[in-house]
Amino acid sequence: MTITGAWRRTAQGAGLLGADGTISASIFAEMTALAMRTGAINLGQGFPDEDGPAIVLEAAREAIANGVNQYPPGRGMPVLLEAIARHQQRFYGLTVDPATEVLVAAGATEALSATLLALLEPGDEVVTFEPFYDAYGGLIALAGGVHRTVRLRSPDFQPDLDELAAAVTDRTRIILINNPHNPTGTVFSRETLEQIVALAHKHDALIVTDEVYEHLTFGVAHLPVATLPGARERTVTISSGGKTFSTTGWKIGWLSAPAAIVTAILAVKQFLTYVNGAPFQPAMAVGLDLPDSYYTGIADDLQAKRDVLGGGLTAAGFTLTAPRGSYFIVADAAALGHPDAVEFCRSLPDLAGVVGIPITAFCLPEHKAEYASGVFCA
Description:
Elements: H1 7-13, H2 27-38, E1 41-42, H3 54-65, H4 78-92, E2 102-105, H5 107-119, E3 125-130, H6 134-142, E4 146-151, H7 161-167, E5 172-178, H8 190-203, E6 206-210, E7 235-240, E8 253-256, H9 259-269, H10 280-288, H11 292-315, E9 319-320, E10 329-332, H12 341-352, E11 354-355, E12 357-358, E13 374-377
Parallel strand pairs: 1-11, 3-4, 3-5, 5-6, 6-7
Antiparallel strand pairs: 2-8, 7-8, 9-10, 10-13, 12-13
Helix pairs in contact: 1-6, 2-12, 3-10, 4-10, 5-6, 5-9
C-alpha cells in the first residue's frame, strides 16, 4: 500500500525524506541515541538541565491540588492571558488586549504551526534566515508554503540587507524571524528589523517573530519587532515560558497579534491541541510576574555558562563567535582539521566524551557545503 499525504512534503521540508522516499532519522535523534549509548555529555540538546523557580513549580502543584485539571478556556486561562499582556507592557511598552489579542498554545511550536497553517495559502512564500530552527522547514511545507532563505554567515551571523531585500517579493506572505536566533545565538540589529518592517509594508507581507529566548540575551537588550513603527498591525509575536522558566516539558506558549489575526489563527489552533496544560497556565502567570531581578539573574547565569563553554571550546582549538543570546554556540571544527562536521560529531564521543550537532542540520540541502564544518553546541 502506498501511503500518500502531507507527511511526505513535511518530511522533505524538514530535510528528513531520503532519496528512496523513506523518512530518515533526524541528526538530533541520531546524536541523542549516540550520547545515550556511549554515556557522552549531550551538547546537542536545547533544554536546560535544572528546574525552574520554586515559586512557579509550587504554583503548578497548588493548581493541581485545587482542582485545576479540566479543559481551560480555548484562548487560555484569563489569569495567564492577563499576565502575558502585563509582561508585554512591562518589558516593551506594548499594550495588548488579553481578551482578543493573546492566544495560549501548546508551546511556541504549536503557536507557530497554527499561525502558518492559518495564514498561508498553497504556494505562498515564507522567508526565514538560514541556518533555521529545524521545525520551520517542516511546518512551512506542511502548510503548503514555499521556503526561501537569507543566509547568515560567520563571524557575526548578521544578514546581508541587499540579500534580504532580494528575497522578499510580492510572492512573500510571511517573513519569519527567530530573535534571539536559534541556532547561531545572534541578536539581530535594529537596522535589520527595521528593514524587515519596511519590506513587509512594501510587499504586503506579515511578520511572524519567534522570541522564545527574549530574556536570554547578553549585553544587548531584546527588541521586539512589534515595537517598531508600522510593525504592530502586521506582526504575530510568539514566545513561551519553557526557556525563561526552565519548564520546557510544560509546553505553555503564546502569541499576541491584532485581534483579527488572532481570530484567524484560533480558527486553526482549536483543531490542533484544542487546549492544554490547565494547571501549568496559572503557574506560568506567576512566573511572568516575577521581579526584574529574576530576569536579569537568568541572563547573567546563562552568560557565565556561555563563557565557560566558549572558553573551553576556544582552548580546544575551535573557532567561534560568542553568541549574544539563546543557549547556543556555533563552533567551527575546520581549524582542528575536521572539515566535515557530520563525521566529526559522530566521532566526538570517542574523541572527547561529548556529542554535538552539525550545523548543516539547520540548512537547506543546496547550502550545506557553506556550513560543513560548523558544530552546534547547547
